[in-house]
Write a structure and sequence with these properties.
By secondary structure, the chain is an alpha/beta fold. The chain has a single domain, classed as Rossmann fold, CATH 3.40.50.150. It contains 8 helices and 7 strands; from the N terminus they run αααβαβαββαβααββ. A 7-stranded mixed beta sheet has the order 3-2-1-4-5-7-6. β2, α5 and β3 form a beta-alpha-beta unit. α3 packs across α4. The structure holds S-adenosylmethionine (SAM).
Amino acid sequence: MTDLDSAYGLETPDDNLRLYRDWAQSYDQDFAEGMDYVLPLRVAEAFRAAGGHGPVLDLGAGTGLCGVALKALGFDAVDACDLSQEMLDVAAEKGAYRRLFTGNMLETLPVEDATYGGIVSSGTFTHGHVGPEALGEVLRVVAPGAVIALSINAEHWVAQGYDSAFDALGAQITDLTVREQRIYGDAATGPHAGDLSRVTTFRKGA
Ligand SMILES: C[S@@+](CC[C@H](N)C(=O)[O-])C[C@H]1O[C@@H](n2cnc3c(N)ncnc32)[C@H](O)[C@@H]1O
């Protein structure tokens, strides 16, 4: 079983903690480079295209690939939050974040209400990780009008009923856009090479 299949088969935050503790040191080389993982860049581009501004919180930041992409696009006030300290330790070495801290998106994050001007999240709304139940916590920590850019695995979107979840948010969000994009680039191989994500942007309502 590949690391990716193991990740998709996780069931709880404790499962995630164990897997990412062991995967942190090899994630960038074996997974991101090996699979030509382009999704973090797509999320950063979508955030900018939607008019996103800082301070930005990268949720499920992992080893910091989306933070690096945001930095390359000129964003310099970006914080990182992840369940796994080991993943954040790798992210810290990249110098793309102002502050890095652990937190669980499925519980209450260690962040005051309306702290951030924007949110990005790449690769974390997916099988075995977090589902639409995390959207409330995402909205709590951003200011009204903030841009939020999330990648949501396309199969997970259907399985977890994101259409209904976004409908249920009503006026809590505005300007919803959804664009289906490839998670991996042309160099990817294997059964997941053609997997798709719905890169989604919206604003927190007033
Ligand atoms: C596939 S990795 C994506 C990392 C990075 N954003 C990227 O695109 O490379 C998923 C990350 O989500 C984190 N994660 C999983 N469940 C989480 C939760 N409940 N709260 C916060 N982070 C979580 C994992 O620790 C892992 O670092």
